[in-house]
């Protein structure tokens, strides 16, 4: 029997598992193949919806699912201590879990995602509001519904982050939300970036600058935060620049899973290196042909986003089928990337506007504008993400 272990059952891991279950259904039925998925919890959250939940364009109920409901029933799913990875031995192909159990695999897919580390910014935890967790989203929704005067600062601490377009997208949607409430004239919006662009894609960056300037949204580049003074409500950069705020919204530092930080398998932030085309784990001269990396867990030169994981899942699933059956051509990942850009909410004064920029390792997005059709298309896109995962599409 060939044993496939998938560590992580959020978007990336669940989609690989379900694609494999479809392609290897006869092998699973005969007992020739086993697919086991491990995760520390059973909550499946559609994080792409979070900004729209903050602004009451979607309900949090749309974003909450159970991983056990989305995984193909032919897949073995372990969660809780039995699914929480605490050790990994690539040479002996052995995984260790929090309950003391071990699992030996023939093939491994690592889809552990990214963790948040707001505690790394001195003083931040004393005034921490974010839309990167569901609890933070619900808290921020309540705060913003009552905010009518002052300065809102969005602090983007450092790269990498999930969906690099989101600092710009959130700022534009915040402007739209405040206009709908007729309080925009009393509120200043400032975006603090650690880099010198709004987005690495030239056309996204160009359009973002135009829209920020049209809407009087201030952006400050190369702002490397050194601390937050919650008592004085000031964000301080490493050069001593001080930015006052009335409400601070933070995009926290992202880190790879602790097990990879502790084991040395990851880079200094805990993200996993690998071949950008084959998606196999590779660190220096160490190459493991049977280990694949996917999604937010990787240190690949590509965005951390569900859309990226979707493209990568196709490549990994097809190549695992070829590995197991010894048939079929090898697929490569070309860096395909989609990053939804929403600029206007559906409000009293507008019908919502959005677009879906696309690029890959060698081709940039062409000039675009956001459209009303794009708004409805992206709402449908978000709402159908669980169905895409469940169907292994």
Automatic annotation (TrEMBL):
Domain named FAD/NAD(P)-binding: residues: 3-142
Species of the source: Vulcanisaeta souniana JCM 11219
Taxonomic placement: Archaea, Thermoproteota, Thermoprotei, Thermoproteales, Thermoproteaceae
Protein name, entry field: Pyridine nucleotide-disulfide oxidoreductase
Entry superkingdom: Archaea
Pfam families xrefs: Pyr_redox_2
MF term (GO), any: oxidoreductase activity
InterPro entries: FAD/NAD-bd_sf, FAD/NAD-binding_dom, SQRD
């Amino acid at each position: 029997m060939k044993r496939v272990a998938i560590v992580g059952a959020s978007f990336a891991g669940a989609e690989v598992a379900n694609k494999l279950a479809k392609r290897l259904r006869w092998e699973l039925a005969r007992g020739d193949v086993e697919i086991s998925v491990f995760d520390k919890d059973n909550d499946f959250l559609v994080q792409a919806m979070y900004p729209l939940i903050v602004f009451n364009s979607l309900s949090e109920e749309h974003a909450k699912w159970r991983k056990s409901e989305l995984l193909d029933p032919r897949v073995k799913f372990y969660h809780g201590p039995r699914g929480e990875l605490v050790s990994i031995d690539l040479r002996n192909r052995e995984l260790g879990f929090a309950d003391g159990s071990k699992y030996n695999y023939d093939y491994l897919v690592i889809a552990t995602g990214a963790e948040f580390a707001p505690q790394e910014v001195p003083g931040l935890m004393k005034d921490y509001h974010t839309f990167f967790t569901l609890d933070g989203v619900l808290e921020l929704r309540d705060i913003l519904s009552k905010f009518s005067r002052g300065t809102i600062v969005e602090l983007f601490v450092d790269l990498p982050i999930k969906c690099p377009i989101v600092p710009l997208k959130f700022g534009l949607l915040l402007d739209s939300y405040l206009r709908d409430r007729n309080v925009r004239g009393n509120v200043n919006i400032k975006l603090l970036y650690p880099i010198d662009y709004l987005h690495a894609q030239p056309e996204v960056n160009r359009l973002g600058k135009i829209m920020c300037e049209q809407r009087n949204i201030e952006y400050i580049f190369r702002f490397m935060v050194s601390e937050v003074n919650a008592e004085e409500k000031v964000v301080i950069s490493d050069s001593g620049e001080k930015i006052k705020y009335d409400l601070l919204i933070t995009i926290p530092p992202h880190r790879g899973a602790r097990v990879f930080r502790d084991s040395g398998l990851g880079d200094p932030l805990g993200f996993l290196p690998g071949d950008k085309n084959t998606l196999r784990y590779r660190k220096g001269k160490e190459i493991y042909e049977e280990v694949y990396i996917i999604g937010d867990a990787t240190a690949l030169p590509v965005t951390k986003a569900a859309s990226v994981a979707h493209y990568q899942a196709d490549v990994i699933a097809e190549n695992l089928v070829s590995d197991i059956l010894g048939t079929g051509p090898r697929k490569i990942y070309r860096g395909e990337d989609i990053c939804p850009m929403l600029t206007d909410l559906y409000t009293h004064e507008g019908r919502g506007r959005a677009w879906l920029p696309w690029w890959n390792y060698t081709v940039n997005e062409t000039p675009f504008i956001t459209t009303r059709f794009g708004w409805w298309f992206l709402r449908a896109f978000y709402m159908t993400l669980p169905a895409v995962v469940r169907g292994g599409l």
